[in-house]
Amino acid sequence: MRLTFYGGAQEVGRVCMLLEEGPKNLMLDCGIKLGETTEYPLIHEDELLRIRNISVSHAHLDHSGYLPHVYSKKARPKIFMTKPTRDLIGVLLSDYQRIQAAKHEGKKLFGSKDVDDVMRDARIIEYLEPFQADFKVQFHSAGHIMGSAMTMIENGPKKILFSGDICMRKTRVLDPCERGLSAETLIVENTYGTKEDILPSYRESYQKMISIIKETVDKGGHIIIPSFAVGRAQEVLLALDDYMRSGAIPPMKIFMDGMIGKAMKIYRHNAIYANDDIKKRILMSEDDPFKSPNFHHPRSKTREDVLKEPCIIVTTSGMLSGGPVLFYLEKLAHDPRNAIIFVGYQAEGTTGNKVLQNEKKIQIYGKEVELKLRIESIRLSGHADFNELIQYIRSVKGLKRVFLMHGEKSELKDSIDKDYDVIVPRQLETYAI
């Protein structure tokens, strides 16, 4: 068996690997890397035509965004994913198609038909349900976002486990990833792969958020929370609602903007994939956490109602690479009473990363905007941190070989290479398994 990395090696984004043996092959994820420019997997277009199967670990575009490009090249592989992933991909790919069409001024890289074809052909697979994709494959819960999956591949006696993105902690919506699986080879993400990447508890992070919100509201300011539409937004919104109900946060409107509202509906429709706490709230009471009266949508395109009085705005995009957050930032950046709270990973080169690196002037809609508002970062993550990754790796039974990917910097190798054959792969390199 051979494993080739077309993306995701020593970087966060555009995850795309090909596992093959003879004519058999399975592509593990099919993502893009969003930033000032969009980066695609380094696979030649002619190669796409021979791809027979693609499994998708979860809906985020850095794992799924290249699918319509594959279809635009007339390739027709079998595509496998969980139901929540299929539902969420429909929203994310449609939005991505609209943005890329506008950016390329009609010279579109793919069309809405390609997105429709991906959605039509996607095969829904439940957790623990074995399926054939040239190899025997099974999905296991990854805990990262709703529907996220670890992928177990069996080929005779060989077992290869691809982690996808994993979370080791129970969150407001999801249980942690499954542990204790058996595999000879592990392909594992290490977004937080350095010794400094030790995340605080959710309680500590939210206490800091509560403090910032109260101080900002006391001054009469607005709070902007840039967020990924899928995953982080739902966790943050449900936490804000809980704290507001308990009195920890003063009552005010919580606005959702961008695709977050659509993602919330999909989460609600797939609540069977949530943890037992969520299911009990929905099934055993009328307390539906996804339909709180504290949640609001802007009433008009001008968003005048949002800007009128102090409120919390949870909006896309999470890295300030586009979306409604730029509108709010342009309108609110000049006032030091306001605050922006980052709650997610800010990849190198993104506007969000530049703001966190203390750049005080950024470009929004072609004009320079000076940032006078309060800038804060809360360490909330749907990823395992450095110590949790070590725990996860050590939980895999019979493990001999570890590929560390989906991380810009990694110090994990030094911590585990006395026990395993550890490889930090390079783009376009092929490794024997």
Describe the overall structure.
A hairpin with a 2-residue loop joins strand 2 (16-21) and strand 3. The chain has two domains: 2-195 and 382-432, Ribonuclease Z/Hydroxyacylglutathione hydrolase-like (Metallo-beta-lactamase, Chain A), CATH 3.60.15; 202-377, Rossmann fold. The strands form four sheets. A seven-stranded mixed sheet has the order 6-5-4-3-2-1-22. It has helices at 45-48, 61-64, 67-72, 83-103, 112-121, 202-218, 232-246, 260-269, 276-283, 304-308, 325-332, 351-356, 386-395, 412-416; strands spanning 2-7, 16-21, 24-28, 53-55, 78-81, 122-124, 131-133, 135-141, 149-155, 158-162, 185-189, 223-226, 254-257, 295-296, 312-315, 339-342, 361-364, 367-370, 374-377, 401-405, 421-423, 430-432. The protein is an alpha/beta fold and 433 residues long. The model has no long low-confidence stretch (mean pLDDT 95). The longest helix is centred in the N-terminal third of the chain and has 21 residues, at 83-103. The chain has 14 helices and 22 strands.
List descriptors.
Metallo-beta-lactamase, Chain A; 7-stranded mixed sheet; globular; Rossmann fold; 433 residues; 2 domains; hydrolase
Secondary-structure blueprint of this entry?
Layout: E1 2-7, E2 16-21, E3 24-28, H1 45-48, E4 53-55, H2 61-64, H3 67-72, E5 78-81, H4 83-103, H5 112-121, E6 122-124, E7 131-133, E8 135-141, E9 149-155, E10 158-162, E11 185-189, H6 202-218, E12 223-226, H7 232-246, E13 254-257, H8 260-269, H9 276-283, E14 295-296, H10 304-308, E15 312-315, H11 325-332, E16 339-342, H12 351-356, E17 361-364, E18 367-370, E19 374-377, H13 386-395, E20 401-405, H14 412-416, E21 421-423, E22 430-432
Parallel strand pairs: 3-4, 4-5, 5-6, 10-11, 11-20, 12-15, 12-16, 13-14, 13-15, 16-19, 20-21
Antiparallel strand pairs: 1-2, 1-22, 2-3, 7-8, 8-9, 9-10, 17-18
Helix pairs in contact: 4-5, 4-8
